[in-house]
Amino acid sequence: MTYISELSWDLVEKILSRVPITSIGAVRSTCKLWNGLSKYRILCSAEARRHQFLRFMVKNYKLCSLRFDLHGILDDEEFVDPSIKEIISDSFNQLKVTKVFHCDGLLLCVTKEKDIETEEESTSLVVWNPYLGQTRWIQPRHNYHRLDSYALGYDSNSRKHKILRFLDDEDDYNLGNHLIVYEIYDFSSDSWRVIDINPDWDIIFFQRGVSLKGNTYFFAKEKFLVLGVGIPPGEFPEPHDDLLCFDFTRERFGPPLPLPFHHYTDDTGALSSLRDEQLAALYQCWSMPEVNIWVTTKIEPNAVSWAPFLKIDTEPLTDYEFQFHFNGASFFIDEEKKVAVVFQLDDQLEDHLDETCYDNAYLIGENGYFEKVGLGEAANPLESNNLEEYCPLVCSCSYVPSLVHINQFAGDKN
User: Where is the F-box domain (predicted)?
Assistant: First the structure.
């Protein structure tokens, strides 16, 4: 019988390089040597390259891994249905996960937990490194709010990771004069601090930012003050959205940057990232069946340029209006195949209040390529009036394992 300790090191490295990322926990429990090695080296390098479409998503308020292999879809080969597996972890099993953000191999999850006695729900934040299996619970200065927005990034000079939090005053939200407080959580000090900024731009709470090179980019709209109620429609034309970057190094927003389209509240728009190098932007006007996607040729906190990637007329592809819900557009693109994968709930959701809803992925590409892939039954957000909370949220960037240790500071539960 050959023991693990007797294997040659070359063979060990070859074996460990092929371990699935989601099975790395089993590797750690095999022997102390492999456990120690996994904390300082990426063992599953070959598996990470092979499964370039490994992502994480929120489905039915659960954090799941998603494998979406697009190999052969344009070559008349049989499409392989995506694999969705719920993350089994003591950190997530009893919680509802409502949002997930990705940056530098770390996931920031917004969770909800119901108090057994009062039946009231409270919000928590947890950061998770899937490769190292480490979690870090983030305690607030005050209570979290359901309309809070978050972003995950890092200082490009020190590589220290941070969380940005917007605290939105819900009571004044519809009057256009709501107060927003900005806080930064610093991993190195395990503390929150208020930052003194007052940008002239609003970021809508249901529009998720996308992290790129340690910074986070958002759709943002120029503030316009509503002086009273009962103002006739059209009196104050709605400004269109621009792109706004939060620079985690300077801890400031950059100047508004142009988007390659004029996006308004009723339109569908979403951002995605590509290999932590480029942004992609999806746009569909509320009254048009056409979907447009652009990618950046240059992207910095204070400069951007765009190039068209895909333009698809969806009207001939379906027998119903193809309109993504305004708060449910998660997507990613495949440059080589010129394909986009967009995730959303059932179309015509308002007709399904008493029926079963389903999550779907839409594959759209050049020359009329279109395919709808069912992702299984979904929670119906209309039943709990939480449409802004539930949609099949997918981290747009393929997951790359990270050696960033997040539980070495005070305040961690694990």
Answer: 7-47
pTM: 0.83
For the domain made up of 51-394, the CATH class stated in words is: mainly beta
Tokens 């972890």 identify what position?
A: 89
> pLDDT tens digits for 254-297?
999 999 999 887 788 889 998 889 999 999 887 787 889 999 99
H or E element at residue 342 = strand 339-344
Is 211 within 8 Å of 102 (Cβ atoms)? Answer: yes
Domain definitions of the chain by residue range: 1-50, 51-394
Token pair recorded at residue 373: 């892939």
Domain 1-50 has CATH 1.20.1280: yes
The Cα–Cα gap between 50 and 110 comes to 30
* Residue 218 and residue 209 in contact, taking contact as beta carbons nearer than 8 Å: yes
Tens of pLDDT along 151-202? Answer: 999 999 999 999 999 876 554 444 444 568 899 999 999 999 999 988 888 8
Question: How many whole angstroms separate alpha carbon 232 and alpha carbon 235?
Answer: 6
Tokens of 119: 């039946």
| Cα gap 324→285, rounded to integer Å | 10
Nearest CA to 106 out of 157, 162, 164 is that of 162
Please, are residues 217 and 279 in contact by the beta-carbon 8 Å criterion? yes
